[in-house]
From TrEMBL:
Organism: marine metagenome
Pfam family, one: PPC
Protein name: Peptidase C-terminal archaeal/bacterial domain-containing protein
Start-end of Pro residues biased regions: 779-788
Region ranges (Disordered): 771-803
InterPro entries for this protein: Ig-like_fold (IPR013783), Ig_E-set (IPR014756), Peptidase_C_arc/bac (IPR007280)
Domain Peptidase C-terminal archaeal/bacterial residue range list: 342-411
Amino acid sequence: MKRTLIFLGLTGLISSTFAIDPRLGSVSPPGVQAGAEVEMRFSGSRLEDAQELLFYKKGFEVLKIEEKTASSVRAKIKVSADCPLGEHPVRVRTAGGITELKTFYVGPFPVVSRVKPKDGEPPQKLPLNCSIASSVPNESQEIFTVDAKKGQRLSAEIESMRLGRGFYDPYIEILDTKGFILSRSDDTKLFIQDCYASAVVPEDGTYTIKVRDTSYGSVGLYRMHVGTFARPTAVYPGGGQVGKDLEVKFIDQATGDFSQMLKVPQPVSFRLTDGRMDEPNLRDFGIFAKRDGVVAPSWNRLRISDFPNALEVEPNNSRSEAKLIDTPMPLALNGIIEKAGDEDWFHFNAKKGQRYEVRLYGRKLRSPLDSVMNVYDKNGKSLASNDDSGGPDSYFGWTVPSDGEYFLRVRDHLQNGGPDYVYRVEFQPVKPTLSLYVPDVGRYDTHTRKSIVVARGNRFPLVLRPRRGNFGGALKMAMKEFPAGIKLHCDEMASNKSALTLVFEAAADAPIAGKLADITATLKTDQPNPVNGGVWQNYDLVQQGNNGVYYRTWVDQIAVAVIEELPYKIRIETPRAPLVQSGTLPVKVIAERKEGFKGSISVRLQLDQGFTTRPPGLSCPSSISIPADKTEAIYNFSANSGAEVRTHQIAMIGSSGVKGGTAYVSTQLTPLEIKDEFATASIPLAKTTQGYPTEVKVNLTQKVEFPGTATVELLGLPSGAKTTTVKMTKETKELTFPIITETGAKTGLHRTLFCRMTVNFNDTTLTQSFGSRGTLRIDPPPSPPSPKKPTVNTLGKLAEEKK
């Protein structure tokens, strides 16, 4: 996917008061016509230093900047005649950063302005083959009229949810000259919440189009196309082989099916997404139906494969009727479940040991089919089957057990069917696949810190996570098409790591610039053609918390910019001592402030939402703060006994308010060495009585040498028990703690004792705990003997003696 960078002509005129952290809220109009010159407004905040518009696809040229303010950028843009139709992501780059990603659409028709009629005036009349944008107030509807002739096709199609502005559920209907409904639609399989209506005009006259929310709520924004364009509900076959000519049939239930030829394009790139409905990849592409010279405003989805097609041959409703396919595997099997109760059988040959990911594309191609898929041997024994897998489409992995003939059956789960129940089953050979993505930094937030914004002479951190398929091994990261003056610092991503922190550093004299770039990961190997992949990133445009994501878009590039110098930097003072298992390590973070900058700086270990980049067994605070009047703070790390013994590379992200926005920086990547424990210990049971002294013995096992003498504390004593610290060296085998108990010391069996040693290691104070669950038993003192109870005879003798 080729990106387009539009420069706004501000080189050398950058204000010293540039705004940090620009934001983009909306793009208007929400759609434009291919081949037109249009005025577009990019609304948001902190946009006064706008320098570039970053379009992810080709076809745009900025002719003139009409206006630049903090809240908007207004530009005159020429859209090329061959600009790809459909959705276009865009960002604004300023001297102080890069905005969020927003989208707009390019369509084939001229855009008509909405003119709301006054009371008593007739509805707005639209010309055929036009587009219009508007909104619907709560408990209301929008009404339009259009003139059409008998036998002419009349179609109306809505883009609303797909505009990415909010959760809208539009409804549309076309009424004839007498006010009866010709066609209506709410939700559709083709466009989900967005809808369309299409019909053949029965007579000359004026026809009415009504748009409203399906429940008479509001529709904050919609874009409607009205015209004579075809609106096929499906296309067959559902894909083709790369570089081959393909004749497809558009299934159009309003005016009849028709065909169109195309050459299947080479996919620009491939990103692993496991075939989920909500995770497309660039082997999915759209074809825009064209009939009688009029192009449909929205595509029908097709698949691109490296292997040929095999089309169903009727009759194939049973295993005995299926005809053997001569073409060897791998193949893409294509068919239509044409009526209720229909099922399709395919007969093919396969070789022993071949491994396939057998994936059905139905709903992912916007077919109504809810598939069930089975593989059988020649005797009818079921070998593999699936109903749903990551959505209504079916999938299973299959290894061919022996050379021979096999059968595949496809049916609808509820035995439904229809002329647009199209499907495609790809026998995809198992091969390594790889892509990268930036994880979310906040819940329900897929936009924050998804770009790389590096200030001159400063650093910026980024977490990357891989999507691996069918391989293991370490990955090497690299920059691709980055702006000049940026360096990448990162470790290799080990096979057992699920995330990696990267630090980007810009030279002090790096040009102020921006690009849509890529970060690539390549398998570390001596073999030729190693597995590699790049960024494949989702951006949720319409989501409602726990209710899920309703609409998202995907891009295969990451926005990168070098911005003007920031008033602060942070760095880690490289630790001079290791972090030992069951121990702690203080790490100093130092802020370098420019004169006059007094902002508080928040510092945290670089994390991603739900997962941490810190190694297993490592703990630290969620964040610390460097106060406005300070230049340093301590970040305390601790490791448990299971922490991996190795040297890790860590970085910390700093954030502070700068000129109304949030400016992010990073420390350098710093080695953090985790070592084995200095010592382990066991604490045998010690016993005493309240008010009496005792001793607690600690049996030591020395593991790693430490310098000098360490001080050891016995902790976890019950109330009323006291002791003193003792000393130990690397030769010490046993420690003895004298215990003094008060008469009111808590009695019982106390399994809470442990030791903590403190040692000076290269002028760094380290601590380590050992000997957990040591036991001290404190008993109450024995009771004094009870006086002997006198008997009756004894009492008589005592009485006589008194006489």
